[in-house]
């Protein structure tokens, strides 16, 4: 029963995270790569908050980290955004986007671990 509830919490979090990801994408439609950068920053911040405040292996951890953040953040879209920029000849924009993404997402996790709720 414990495993089943973790799967259900993960699925619910994933559904909500995916819907939220779609919403952010629609807000920034055709503005490559801002939507991806925003969701990855916010998701990294949320993961940091969960690391600080939620015991790993609990249902709420599975809901938030594995489910919501897994559905909300997107490494695959980040990768395809970079490839698209490179194919369009925007090499420096692609490099800047990669560096910016890494720096702000790691900083967001670090910031999140400072937030006690």
TrEMBL record:
Pfam families: CRCB (PF02537)
UniProt superkingdom: Bacteria
Keywords on record: Cell inner membrane, Cell membrane, Ion channel, Ion transport, Membrane, Metal-binding, Sodium, Transmembrane, Transmembrane helix, Transport
Location, primary (coarse class): membrane
TM ranges: 32-51, 60-79, 91-111
A cellular component annotation (GO) from this entry: plasma membrane
Membrane topology category: Multi-pass membrane protein
Keyword Transmembrane helix: yes
Molecular function GO terms recorded: fluoride channel activity; metal ion binding
Catalyses which reaction(s): fluoride(in) = fluoride(out)
Family: Belongs to the fluoride channel Fluc/FEX (TC 1.A.43) family.
Protein name: Fluoride-specific ion channel FluC
């Amino acid at each position: 029963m414990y495993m089943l509830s973790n799967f259900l919490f993960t699925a619910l979090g994933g559904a909500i995270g995916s819907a939220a990801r779609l919403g952010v994408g629609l807000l920034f439609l055709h503005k490559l790569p801002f939507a991806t950068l925003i969701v990855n920053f916010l998701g990294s911040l949320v993961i940091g908050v969960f690391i600080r405040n939620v015991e790993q292996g609990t249902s709420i951890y599975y809901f938030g980290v594995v489910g919501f953040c897994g559905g909300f953040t997107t490494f695959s879209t980040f990768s395809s955004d970079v490839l698209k920029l490179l194919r369009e000849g925007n090499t420096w924009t692609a490099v800047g986007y990669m560096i910016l993404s890494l720096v702000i997402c790691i900083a967001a996790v670090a910031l999140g671990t400072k937030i006690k709720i």
